[in-house]
Predict the structure of L-seryl-tRNA(Sec) selenium transferase.
Amino acid sequence: MAESSKSEGYSDSIKKKLRAIPKVDECLGWIEEHVEAPKAFLKAAVRELLAGEREAILSGAGRKIEDLTQKVLVPELKKRLAVKMAPNFRRVINATGVIIHTNMGRSLLPPEAMAGLATVGSRYSNLEFDLTTGKRGSRYSLVEDLLCELTGAEAGLVVNNNAAAVLLVLETLSKGKEVIVSRGQLVEIGGSFRIPEVMKKSGASLVEVGATNRTHLKDYEEAITEETSLLLKVHMSNYRIIGFTSEVPLEDLVSLGRKHKIPVMDDLGSGSLVDLSRYGLEKEPTVQDVIRAGVDVVTFSGDKLLGGPQAGLIVGRKKIIDRIKKNHLNRALRIDKFTLAALEAVFRLYFDEDKRETIPTLAMMAMPLDVIERRARRLVRRLKKTLSAHCEVDTAAVESRVGGGAMPEQGLPSRAVVLRPRTLKLSEFESKLRGADLPVIGRVENERMLLDMRTVGDDEIIPLSQSLLKVFEVE
Ligand SMILES: *Cc1c(COP(=O)(O)O)cnc(C)c1O
């Protein structure tokens, strides 16, 4: 009934075609016996297929009646089913050269962290159990000492991510009060984290000072009132103002805060524990530098430059951290046991100068160009043997990015394998590569595909070339 009423107003030939679409049960009968899949997936695949056929017919395209058969439709059903049976959340090869790629999972964890995850995931643990007293313990105490040791802070706390960290600090210190921020630092960071919005959610009111490109100490000083609860500095992360600019040095902001007895907060965003100039990047204050400068609260991400799991780290003066710990909002933002396990393992690696650079994020930043070149040459050799008929293969000098909102202007010299498909359009090639069983994500630039080898592991060269062979249907 529904079908005939919906098809009213269409031509007889379309109506005839619609009637020729097989019924759901009939299609199920075709495949039920032959494929290994949950009934719900089978049904969904059939329904989607039939809806697609119907839509195509209504739009005037669609199959001929003699093609609406088991022989034609079963392979289509199997394709849809294969997609449903494959995990939605899976591995990809990141050949973009962006090390901390927010869309591809940011930082990769070192083996020590993975071992920690496996243990606490499959065994009971002392997550909130004090093994000394036999009483209830605090999950935060498991990493607080390490965090303080590494950053030089008096106290620390870890929450779900840095956005949560900023929200929690503001809600604790500034709800119903004023927070002074420079106009040039009212940033939006990918994925809809905006300082003015977070401020609103926390119940604090934003007091903007200075101009977009220049803010002076007197701008802050003149904005201080009875209601001022915090002087906030925000790392500009993913953008930069160039030209006639001026920011207030952190030390001056700290002195101003002291003079007026107002705490100073620095949202570092990426927040590195190591001096990045050793990787040829611009020198930026480390978390330790900022604590040493006397900032009262510092927030940064666990999975950006730190190279750990998703987390928001809050460090600073004990008096302030204690207040934050008592905030009930904290319970809603708390980290799970996996985060704790991974974070502790990563922290411990930082104490060992020799092992620090085995943390994948740091390892990829530190990677010497000749190692990347060797990788590129290895891939090129493989591809020239197998793919020359389908694709032009070459290498090129490129620049990798740190990503994660850190240092947007700076590149790390790198090497890419350059592909120019001969038998496919570039857009088709890009989409097939993305759709491969093991998807490969590269950069399309100047009519060619670039695969930056900095973010492709040595052990990914063979799987990557296999994905390429499949795209060109070479066996
Ligand atoms: C990335 C970033 C955030 C958000 O951190 P998440 O860990 O992604 O929640 C906040 N502030 C700044 C300055 C950032 O760079």
Notes: The CA atoms of residues 21 and 68 lie 6 Å apart.
